[in-house]
Amino acid sequence: MKSNSPLTGEIELENCPIGRLDDLVKLSREAYIDNYRHIWTDSGANYLEKNFTKEVLEIDFLDTNIFYFFVCNDDEQIGFVKLHINSAVKDYPSEEAIYLERLYLKKAFCGRGIGSEVMQKLFKISESYSKKAIWLRAMPSTPAVRFYSRLGFQSIAEGKIPFPFIKPEHSPLYTMVKNLRN
Hints:
The chain is of the alpha+beta class. It has helices at 21-36, 45-51, 54-60, 114-128, 144-150, and strands spanning 11-15, 66-73, 76-84, 97-105, 133-138, 154-160, 172-179. Helices cover 29% and strands 29% of the residues. The chain is globular, with a radius of gyration of 16 Å.
């Protein structure tokens, strides 16, 4: 599908079981590198090997606190989400907060309102677990911080991306939280 093609159906979050691990590896590598290759001196090769291989992702499926979802339009997988259902952050113990570790879309689907739709679905998932907050980390050198701020997230801490080969201008990382009870 080309980026100017209309979306043909509703955006859905489809649970990703371990039996779909190969699909997740392929999609995660494509969605990540298409959007973030430019922030790495090695074009993201090290980061991909540390985060998006079958062996690494397989370990996540052993953790009952971690869930993966495919972002789908009709039957096409256009992105993915990684959630930690119980994950503490400042002012919120783990039973009150959910951590959105990853939300990546294929590049052709970025900037089309899909991320906002996905976030609304994630807010509902968070509320179904009776969470008071959802939190994430975002790079201020990308549109992510502005995107999440528009959705009501507030920056509560600053850090650095802890991986080699990151270009210095892209290493800052904000921790952002949205209170779901307001």
